[in-house]
Write a structure and sequence with these properties.
It is built from 23 helices and 20 strands. The protein is an alpha+beta fold. It has 4 domains: about 180 residues, Porin chaperone SurA, peptide-binding domain (Triger factor/SurA peptide-binding fold, Orthogonal Bundle); about 140 residues, no CATH class; about 120 residues, Chitinase A, domain 3, CATH 3.10.50; about 100 residues, Chitinase A, domain 3. Strands 5, 16, 17, 18 and 19 form a 5-stranded antiparallel beta sheet that branches. It has a 4-stranded antiparallel beta sheet with strand order 13-6-15-14. It is extended.
Length: about 625
């Protein structure tokens, strides 16, 4: 719970800057360039979209994609996802929406923009808008308030236009809600057999003739790794930085210029007792949990040990630690919880606080007053920062001088003779997985090394850790191993491949027999397969069954009139043949809280469909020019 309540925030200042940069990207984007720039990336009905705006939108889209894959998507690979075209479409559609708003006579007042800004958390202090904070944050991002407000007003037009178009979506009928509910909540059961590849392993016949013939078809899979013999020089930021002496006056100057970085806001140490309840729970469940919370709060107010009460009653993950949430600063918890804690005094027991997680009782243990870290306590940290800043330029200069020296000398060997104090690193043959540590720690160095041909000198390579100069003494290309050296591994792999093929054929044969009107149970018994029943399977809930979850969606394509799949289900090396058994379609309870949710979802879907159709029509009639470089 603590990790959920905390929003992975760092210092308040850094959090504000990050959020405002995001806001700038969102609101200070397309449409602010109407000057007729000839180098526009796009022109939509005379409205220019600059390359800067395109690049900002592209960078945001790329970052979102990269984040989905753990922050490790090369930009070249991003294009396989069509990111560029998606960004272009988005920019065009946003421009068309704004133009449509103007044609519809939609206007956004300055008062409305002011209210939006006042409600933005990055510009608030203690829940209230702060004009000083607003100006300071914008100034930190080199932005004038008038420009920011103008850009927000301009882009708000797009939002209002989408809202107005969505109003024509019409109503959602009770029949449609019932139909959607039935689709989402229906359950289905199948009977099935599992045909595992392992069951066929003993049936695979292996001899040298068959194994050699198979090896010829797959031998490239068994090639050795390419190997490389190198001479190299590496200049790392870390090694250069450690030798740089930093003037104490510069340390002090940096400290004073970045004082906000070293301010620690007020922190509070609290405990809580949680009674879980979400918006999806019934009113009865909500009332029951709220009542429990009130009863336990009464016990705490009468002097009960809060930690002991938390261990006994709390339903949150901090139960075993007595509800301990540790120290946290303002803004790190969800709003309702945060507001309650920062209105308390040490020793206070809160009223019952409702959040999206349920009902909380909070006990405030301690308050740490705000403080600023002393210069002495952060001197080492600042020293390292300044060393790293200076090291980047010095490292490049050192590496570039060496590279020019090697070119002038004509070879690595001659350069080494001319510079006897310079240590040239040499290696024996190595593959990527056992490369020297300094190369292995920087993917740029290692990748470039294995692009070299024998006798080739690299360019000056900039990596994540510094610079490198590489010379390939020799290269060993991947080799196909001799059959005898891999015979045991080949036999094992061959058995696995043949077993899987046998299992797949058996599954296809059974399914073909079922399509030919043979009975499921009889055919399974004939082949020695055990018939299993899945039980009722759900799309929405966790299914407690051995039937593979990856096949559940396919099961819902079956019906009494079409009881069999087109092909067996596959999970790893196992195959599943199944047939429709039963379906349960529950009616939506009349008093279900989900009625509102389903109605809203269906309405939003209609609005999106209507908006998409409107945009397609607008694009058809629009005059759109795209720069040839895009």
């Amino acid at each position: 719970m603590l990790q959920i309540l905390r929003k992975k925030a760092q210092s308040t200042f850094i959090q504000v800057i990050v959020v405002v940069i995001a806001l700038v990207f969102i609101f200070w984007g397309v449409g602010t360039n109407l000057t007729g720039d000839r180098q526009s990336a796009l022109v939509v009905n005379g409205e220019n979209i600059s390359f800067q705006q395109y690049q900002q939108a592209y960078d945001r889209a790329y970052q979102r994609l990269s984040d989905q894959f753990g922050g490790n998507v090369p930009k070249g690979l991003a294009e396989t996802f069509g990111v560029k075209q998606q960004v272009i479409n988005q920019l065009i559609q946003t421009s068309l929406l704004r133009q449509g708003a103007e044609k519809m006579g939609i206007h956004v007042s300055g008062q409305e923009i002011q209210q939006i800004i006042k409600n933005m958390a990055p510009f608030q202090e203690n829940g209230e808008f702060s004009i000083e904070r607003y100006k300071a944050v914008l100034a930190a991002n080199r932005m004038a308030p008038t420009k920011f407000e103008e850009s927000m007003k301009f882009d708000r037009l797009s939002e209002v236009a989408a809202e107005e178009i969505g109003k024509f979506a019409g109503i959602v009928t009770d029949f449609e809600i019932q139909e959607l509910y039935s689709q989402q909540n229906e359950k289905i059961s199948v009977k099935y057999v599992k045909i595992a590849a392992d069951n066929f392993a003993d049936k695979v016949k292996i001899d040298d003739t068959a194994l050699k013939a198979w090896f010829e078809t797959v031998k490239d899979n068994y090639k050795s790794e390419p190997q490389l013999k190198l001479q190299y020089l590496v200049f790392t930021y870390e090694s250069v930085a450690s030798k740089i002496a930093v003037d104490p006056a510069k340390i002090k100057e940096y400290y004073e210029s970045n004082i906000d970085k070293y301010k620690i806001p007020e922190q509070r140490h609290a405990r809580h007792i949680l009674f879980k309840a979400t918006d999806q729970d019934t009113a009865e469940r909500q009332q029951e949990q709220a009542k429990k919370a009130e009863e336990v709060r009464t016990l705490a107010k009468k002097g009960g040990d809060f930690s002991a009460l938390a261990r006994q009653y709390s339903e949150g993950p901090t139960k075993d630690s007595g509800g301990d949430l540790g120290f946290f600063s303002a803004g790190q918890m969800v709003p309702a919880f945060d507001k309650a804690v920062f209105a308390m005094k040490p020793g206070d027991i809160s009223q019952v606080v409702k959040t999206q997680f349920g009902y909380h009782i909070i006990s405030l243990d301690e308050i740490k007053q705000p403080e600023t870290k002393s210069l002495e306590s952060v001197t080492a940290e600042i020293t390292k920062t300044l060393q790293q800043q200076e090291a980047e330029n010095m490292t490049f200069q050192m590496a570039n001088d060496a590279y020019e020296g090697i070119i002038a000398a004509g070879s690595f060997a001659q350069y080494a003779k001319d510079h006897p104090t310079t240590h040239i690193n040499t290696t024996d043959f190595f593959a990527k997985n056992n490369a020297p540590a300094v190369l292995k720690s920087d993917a740029q160095f290692l990748d470039k090394a294995f692009e070299l041909h024998k006798g080739e000198l690299s360019s000056l390579i900039k990596g994540n850790t510094g610079y490198a100069i590489l010379y390939a003494d020799d290269v060993q290309e991947p080799q196909v191993p001799a059959f005898e050296t891999k015979k045991d591994i080949l036999a094992k792999d061959y058995r696995k491949v043949q077993s899987r093929e046998m299992a797949e054929k058996a599954a296809n044969d059974m399914l073909q027999g079922l399509h030919g009107d043979k009975k499921f149970d009889a055919l399974a018994q004939e082949n020695g397969y055990k018939v299993l029943v899945s039980g009722l399977l759900s799309r929405r809930e966790q299914n407690d069954t051995p039937f593979p979850s990856s096949l559940v969606e396919d099961v819902f394509l079956l019906s009494p009139s079409s009881p069999l799949p087109e092909k067996p289900g596959t999970v790893g090396d196992d195959f599943f043949v199944y047939t429709f058994l039963d379906r349960e379609i529950p009616p939506m309870p009349k008093d279900s809280k989900e009625v509102v949710q389903y109605r809203d979802n269906l309405l939003r879907l209609r609005q999106q469909q209507l908006l998409s159709a409107w945009l397609r029509h607008m694009e058809t009639d629009a005059k759109i020019t795209r720069h040839q470089s895009l």
